[in-house]
Amino acid sequence: MQAKKGIAILGSTGSIGTQALEVLASYPKYFDLQVLTAGMNANLLIEQALKFQPNSVVITDESQYQKVKDALWSEDIHVYAGQEALCQVVESTEVHTVLTALVGYAGLKPTIHAIEAGKTIALANKETLVVAGELITQLAKEKGVNIYPVDSEHSAIFQCLVGEFHNPIEKIYLTASGGPFRGHTHEQLKSVTLEQALKHPNWSMGAKITIDSASLMNKGLEVIEAKWLFGLAPEQIDVIVHPQSIVHSLVQFEDGSMKAQMGLPDMKLPIQFALTYPARLKTDFPRFNFMDYPQLTFEQPDRNVFKNLDLAFQAMAAKGTAACALNAANEEAVAAFLDKRISFLEIAELNAQTMHALANTPNPIYEDYVRADAQARAYVQEILK
Ligand code: NDP
Ligand code: MG
Predict the structure, then answer these.
(1) What is the enclosing helix (H) or strand (E) of 323?
(2) Ligand 1 within 6 A of CB of 14
(3) Which domain holds residue 53?
(4) Which residue from 220, 269, 346, 358 puts its CA 20 to 30 A from 275's CA?
């Protein structure tokens, strides 16, 4: 039998992290869980550690180190704390694949460490490629590291490309559900609430990506993610709204043929495929029934109302640190919206203001991204004072 694959899950207490653990629990013969990490949810991390018995756990919030350490004292599990520990645990020789399921810019540094250590990446943390796609893809190439997408749209494209890697892509279409405010006018968006924004029609996800989905920022981030994952030019990427979320995305080849990947919306499938590629393991996930979806519909996104989508295309065209600044502004703006400090429409306004105000550094190195991220956050905080 083949050796089990050692897995590290960064962000095991989140939406993707907990679903990844369900996948791992279904295939104990294939996976050997090595590392679990949490941000602040010590209780869930402890529960997961007791159940899955990893080699190491990290609680990023250092104030909770003692709590986790005490709870796991009788177990054969190493307990670490702090952001730096994330960078160390991914380097363990027992780890084969690192699933980056933490949210936001915090994913960048541990992903760099994992690639430098030659680990395969199962990438859920799209912000890593948005912020520093050039650096990450270059490093992965140098180290001969594969980055497998977890994001459902990118997994769909990847699945369409299996067996086609030598055929050039003419274009890809990323599908978007349109979120809870599809069809809303600018006027209607003025009064939407946090509670409404948190109600996604088709997917249950973490708070940040749920807000990003409502504002179409998520699709903007995914456009940039796709550029780096599949080596595309901006004009080769298009977005189409598909409210049923059954067609997960499409590839158009140079002969005009289009391939789509379909299925019920369930993140466990793309998570599993990223961990088992090229194999497909048998699942008992519910199957698609045509009669439940007699019509699959498609429409153009409303770019005049949902301004974030064009901001992402602009950042992608500008190159340099523009997308890093946009991402940082958006993380700050979404946090402020979740705190009920700003309105929904102010998210895109802050994003635009920040991206256009800050200087773009061409050909960035790592330190340029760190600086651009910090500057953009400070700029937003200054406006919010
Ligand atoms: P969640 O908010 O549900 O989970 C985030 C995870 O990251 C939690 O384990 C959290 O820990 C941890 N975390 C948060 N902040 C930090 C930090 N600063 N340092 C270290 N760990 C941290 O997010 P999701 O699971 O929804 O999303 C994770 C990533 O996957 C995002 O990049 C998202 O865009 C992407 N993604 C998610 C999808 C989904 O269906 N959810 C679909 C496609 C992509 P704790 O809770 O313990 O504080
Ligand atoms: Mg997605």
Answers:
(1) helix 322-338
(2) yes
(3) 5-149
(4) 220
3-state percent helix, strand, coil for the chain, nearest multiple of 5: 50, 15, 35
Residues 75 and 130 in one domain: yes
> How would you write 134-155 as a 3-class SS string?
HHHHHHHHHHCCCEEECCHHHH
Does residue 253 have its Cβ closer than 6 Å to ligand 1? no
From atom 41 of ligand 1, which residue's Cα is the shortest distance away? 205
pTM of the model: 0.98
Do 12 and 65 have their domain in common?
Answer: yes
Is 80 contained in some domain? yes
Do 14 and 141 fall into the same domain?
A: yes
Please give the tally of structural domains in the chain: 2
Contact between 358 and 376 (Cβ < 8 Å): yes
| Atom nearest to 209 CA in ligand 1 | 34
Q: Residue 254 falls within a domain, yes or no?
A: yes
Residues 175 and 314 reside in one and the same domain = yes
Question: Which residue's CA lies nearest to atom 21 of ligand 1?
Answer: 39
Domain's final residue, options 96, 120, 149: 149
What tokens does 82 get? 């702090």
Same domain membership, residue 239 and residue 192: yes
- Going from the Cα of 8 to the center of ligand 1, the distance in angstroms, rounded, reads 14
Ligand 1 probe mutation, 23, 36, 103, 217, most atoms within 8 A of CB: 103
* Domain's final residue, options 122, 149, 176: 149
User: What DSSP letter does each residue of 57-87 carry, written as one string?
Assistant: EEESSGGGHHHHHHHTTTSS-EEEESHHHHH
Ligand nearest to the CA of 89: 1
**pLDDT tens for each residue of the chain, 385 residues long:** 568 999 999 999 999 999 999 999 999 999 999 999 999 999 999 999 999 999 999 999 999 999 999 999 999 999 999 999 999 999 999 999 999 999 999 999 999 999 999 999 999 999 999 999 999 999 999 999 999 999 999 999 999 999 998 999 999 999 999 999 999 999 999 999 999 999 988 888 999 999 999 999 999 999 999 999 999 999 999 999 999 999 999 999 999 999 999 999 999 999 999 999 999 999 999 999 999 999 999 999 999 999 999 999 999 999 999 999 999 999 999 999 999 999 999 999 999 999 999 999 999 999 999 999 999 999 999 999 9
CB 207 within 8 A of CB 198: yes
* CATH number of the domain that residue 45 is part of: 3.40.50.720
